[in-house]
Amino acid sequence: MSVLDDIIAGVREDLDVRRQKLSLDEVQTLARQAPAPRDALAALTPRAGGVRVIAEVKRKSPSKGDLSAIQDPAELAAAYERGGAAVISVLTEERRFGGSLADLDAVRAAVDLPLLRKDFTVDEYQIWEARAHGADLILLIVAALDDATLDSFLKLTERLGMHALVETHTPEEVERAVAVGARIIGVNVRNLKTLEIDRSVFAALAGLIPAGAVVVAESGVRDIADVETFVADGAQAVLVGEALVRHSNPELTVGEFARAGSALHH
Ligand SMILES: O=P(O)(O)OC[C@@H](O)[C@@H](O)c1c[nH]c2ccccc12
């Protein structure tokens, strides 16, 4: 069983527990009562001379273990916002990433930016749940979904006024993302089946993404030089977790990353 399969098995178990407490019907009602979604696509659409930063609240990961004892996710997200993040990502997967919907709620209450609920979406319930908790963007990992499911999840997401970051790691997955009409396409340079990072995957795949879709480089950003490389290879946005949560001044670092991209356009 790959790491991805293993993570998804846990996600499904945890989801069954939540569904016992709150039915799909009840979550749908909460989603319909939630304040209107913010436009994550607009927030990620490139401006002249700048890379958009999606700054992630990430406590731990299966590859690295504990990353940061984040005492106050709301305070961290507020620092990201002050630093110039375009979107805040909040991991909600519990077992491997130490996240929760409580973290998402805390961040929602603290910032005005669009929020990405970062999880392994394998059930329609999670999409309604994301909206009920104030998310504006969800993650759809192509490797975890068949074509029909990917298509129906993307349609439901957009019907609820949200957008999807459609994550890929191979040329075939980019093709599948494009085929369902994804408007925000991420290239994760970490292979979720082996957890290995290969930054060269970004350049190889970015060129396959048609103009009109927002191109996001995900994972493996260590420093300004990495941001510059991804931007030079076609990234319009970068998704950064570890480098921000480990830094003593995340606000400053978000700003540096956002500017690192823009320097290349002058
Ligand atoms: O911490 P990093 O290397 O900056 O990576 C952030 C983000 O890309 C990573 O958390 C991620 C990308 N795709 C995912 C899918 C599930 C969980 C996590 C992820």
From TrEMBL:
Gene3D superfamilies: Aldolase class I. InterPro entries: Aldolase_TIM, Indole-3-glycerol_P_synth, Indole-3-glycerol_P_synth_dom, Indole-3-GlycerolPSynthase_CS, RibuloseP-bd_barrel. Signal peptide: none annotated. Pathway: Amino-acid biosynthesis; L-tryptophan biosynthesis; L-tryptophan from chorismate: step 4/5. CDD domains: IGPS. Its EC number is 4.1.1.48. The keyword Endoplasmic reticulum does not apply. It catalyses: 1-(2-carboxyphenylamino)-1-deoxy-D-ribulose 5-phosphate + H(+) = (1S,2R)-1-C-(indol-3-yl)glycerol 3-phosphate + CO2 + H2O. Keywords: Amino-acid biosynthesis, Aromatic amino acid biosynthesis, Decarboxylase, Lyase, Tryptophan biosynthesis. GO terms for biological process: L-tryptophan biosynthetic process. One of its GO terms (molecular function) is indole-3-glycerol-phosphate synthase activity. The keyword Amino-acid biosynthesis applies. Residues 4-254 form the Indole-3-glycerol phosphate synthase domain. It holds the Pfam family IGPS. Belongs to the TrpC family. NCBIfam families: PRK00278.1-1 (NF001369), PRK00278.2-4 (NF001377). HAMAP family: IGPS_B (MF_00134_B). This is Indole-3-glycerol phosphate synthase. It comes from Arthrobacter subterraneus. The gene is trpC.
